[in-house]
């Protein structure tokens, strides 16, 4: 076979291989309803993000989009269901920042986050807020830093052991030489109950968790953990502004798919999510949760998740942090 004939045969083979994928992408999503697995129980931020997106995606795609809550193990149970699902474009997941921490804290997790899942889109990010009880003397986070000098320590509460808030404060305390002692709670509700009662002097939680109690003046925000200030709390400085250089530890939400989902379908859903995020209604609802919308490609979203996995794996291992 001469070289020209060989090239022509190869081109024909490639075209034949790509045609089914192109046809599948063109036909999607006509086979049936699309399932969005919210990997936390009803009522939390993951559930709300899924339910904000679902009706808009349903309208854009012309296909029913169903939200199914599958909570447990910091999101790992629902994420595992997505990892095991058929990669046909009819099962996706909505995950929280625990997605970037779970592999380090749960070594026996039933899937490989890097190999068994693909990131479709980064929906958005939100700062975590370090707050204090209204009657505590701390007017800013630098007062907290000063109070931990000379062998003194302060306790801080989070939504749980190994949560992103726990890891972020661990990273902050270690890099700045602060003596901050962790008190884990079983979720945002119990944490805020003790925070507003003054039983724990410091707390760290997402804007979603903290802002109602900041608005009621029962807790005072001291700093946010993102590189930029948040529009929901414009007067609250970032830790980077306060001298903790390059500190950036956002809460985040993303949509994932089984790893072998055809790239054409991943790209299509990514485009539809980006379109949905730019609608005024969706943007306003997410902003009300303190979420800053992210627009980008699947590759950019995947790179973000990879960085989160690397960052928090190091913090977990360096500080010998274990799950509850």
Topology diagram in text:
Blueprint: H1 3-27, E1 34-38, H2 45-61, E2 65-69, H3 76-84, E3 91-95, H4 102-105, H5 113-116, E4 117-126, E5 128-133, H6 141-147, E6 154-158, H7 164-176, E7 180-184, H8 188-197, E8 202-206, H9 207-215, E9 219-224, E10 251-258, H10 263-277, H11 280-288, E11 292-293, H12 298-318
Parallel strand pairs: 1-2, 1-3, 6-7, 6-8
Antiparallel strand pairs: 3-10, 4-10, 4-11, 5-8, 5-9
Report how far apart the termini are.
Answer: 65 Å
Question: What oligomeric state do the depicted chains represent?
Answer: single chain
Percent helix among the residues? 40-55%
Report the major sheet: 6 strands, mixed
Tally of alpha and pi helices: 12
Overall body shape: globular
Low-confidence regions: none
Derived from helix and strand composition plus strand pairing, the structural class reads: alpha/beta
* E-strand count: 11
Compute the gyration radius: what is it?
22 Å
Major sheet: arrangement of strands = 2-1-3-10-4-11
Order of helices and strands: HEHEHEHHEEHEHEHEHEEHHEH
Instruction: Write down the overall mean pLDDT.
Output: 91
Strand content: 15-25%
Task: Provide an overview of this structure.
It is a single chain. This protein has 324 residues and is α/β, with parallel strands linked by helices. Helices cover 44% and strands 19% of the residues. The chain contains twelve helices and eleven strands. It has helices spanning 3-27, 45-61, 76-84, 102-105, 113-116, 141-147, 164-176, 188-197, 207-215, 263-277, 280-288, 298-318; strands at residues 34-38, 65-69, 91-95, 117-126, 128-133, 154-158, 180-184, 202-206, 219-224, 251-258, 292-293. Strands 2-1-3-10-4-11 form a six-stranded mixed beta sheet. Strands 7-6-8-5-9 form a five-stranded mixed beta sheet, sandwiched between helices. Strand 1, helix 2 and strand 2 form a beta-alpha-beta unit. Helix 2 packs across helix 10 (263-277). It is globular. The mean pLDDT is 91.
């Amino acid at each position: 076979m001469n070289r020209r004939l060989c090239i022509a045969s190869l081109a024909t083979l490639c075209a034949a291989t790509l045609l089914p994928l192109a046809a599948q992408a063109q036909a999607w999503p006509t086979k049936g309803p699309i399932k969005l697995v919210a990997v936390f129980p009803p009522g939390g931020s993951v559930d709300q993000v899924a339910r904000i997106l679902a009706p808009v995606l349903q309208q854009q795609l012309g296909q029913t989009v169903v939200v199914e809550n599958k909570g447990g193990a910091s999101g790992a149970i629902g994420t595992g269901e997505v990892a095991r699902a058929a990669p046909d474009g009819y099962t996706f997941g909505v995950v929280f920042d625990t997605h970037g921490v779970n592999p380090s804290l749960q070594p026996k997790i039933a899937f490989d986050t890097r190999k068994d899942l693909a990131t479709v889109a980064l929906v958005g990010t939100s700062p975590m807020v370090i707050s204090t009880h209204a009657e505590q003397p701390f007017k800013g986070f630098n007062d907290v830093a000063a109070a931990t000098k000379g062998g003194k320590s302060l306790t801080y509460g989070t939504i749980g052991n190994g949560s992103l808030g726990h890891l972020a404060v661990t990273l902050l305390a270690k890099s700045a030489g602060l003596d901050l002692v962790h008190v884990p709670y079983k979720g945002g509700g119990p944490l805020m109950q003790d925070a507003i009662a003054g039983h724990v002097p410091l707390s760290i939680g997402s804007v979603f968790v903290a802002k109602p109690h900041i608005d009621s003046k029962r807790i005072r925000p001291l700093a946010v953990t993102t590189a930029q200030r948040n529009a929901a709390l414009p007067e609250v400085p970032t830790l980077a502004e306060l001298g903790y250089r390059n500190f950036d530890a956002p809460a985040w939400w993303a949509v994932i798919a089984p790893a072998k989902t055809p790239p054409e379908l991943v790209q299509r859903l990514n485009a539809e999510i980006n379109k949905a995020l730019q609608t005024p209604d969706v943007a306003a609802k997410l902003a009300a949760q303190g979420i800053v919308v992210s627009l980008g490609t699947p590759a950019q979203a995947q790179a973000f998740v990879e960085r989160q996995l690397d960052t928090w794996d190091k913090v977990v291992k360096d500080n010998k942090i274990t799950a509850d």
